[in-house]
Amino acid sequence: QQEVVYSIPHNLGSTYKWQLPLGAFISSQNANGNQVKINFSSFSGDISVSEINDNGCIGAPSVLPVRVLSGPTVSLSLNGPNTICPGDETSLLFNLQGAGSQGFDVIYSDGVENDTLENISNGHIETITPTQSRNYFVLNVIDREYPNCNAASVRGNAFVNVNFAPTASIS
Questions:
Q1: What is the pLDDT of residue 42?
Q2: Using CA atoms, how far apart are residues 168 and 171, in angstroms rounded to an integer?
Q3: Euclidean distance between CA atoms 24 and 42, whole angstroms
């Protein structure tokens, strides 16, 4: 999540001073200032809040470490011959990276239809048997452990040329 709500109990007459990791900012807060909505950049760090009571005394900060995860990446390439005959096979290679350890869901297309590969891991090879020439490309990747992290990188494509089979006729 890029935007997260944090809060501490409010004490009457108190105000609150928040310290955030590099690049993070408070996008909104309630009237008392004890509840804030924080937007994060790509940096991890500590969130801290100190209470300042109505006498002007500053309490010890409450500190919470925050780890900002990078979204998953996928790279598609051809793993077999790029020119085949109708009925022949070739394969696609999916290189995947992400913070999670529960696999990935990948949505890819051949320019005509989309297909979803569920719970695959890095180095997944998908066998295809196109009947016409097609350009394969990835539309999205989802890290199953952190599904709210948007893809950081989706790249690569694989063009498969399907030659026409000859037709012979005896005369």
A1: 79
A2: 10
A3: 9
Report pLDDT for 120. Answer: 97
Token digits of residue 62: 């409450």
Whole-angstrom Cα distance, residue 144 to residue 159? Answer: 28
Helices (H) and strands (E) counted in the chain, each on its own, are 0, 15
Task: Give the three-state DSSP class for 82.
Answer: coil
The pLDDT assigned to 165 comes to 76
Q: Which residues pair with 160 in a beta bridge?
A: 134
Query: What pLDDT shows up at residue 75?
Result: 97
For residues 32 and 10, the answer to whether their CB atoms sit within 8 Å is: yes
The stretches in the chain having pLDDT less than 50 are: none
Residues 6+ apart with CB under 8 A from 24: 38, 39, 40, 41, 43, 45, 47
Following DSSP, what letter does each residue of 136-168 receive, concatenated? EEEEEEEETTSTTSPPSEEE-EEEEEEPPPP--
3-state secondary structure at position 129: coil
pLDDT at 56: 94
Residue 124 to residues 79, 99, 107, 121, Cα–Cα distance (Å): 10, 17, 13, 6
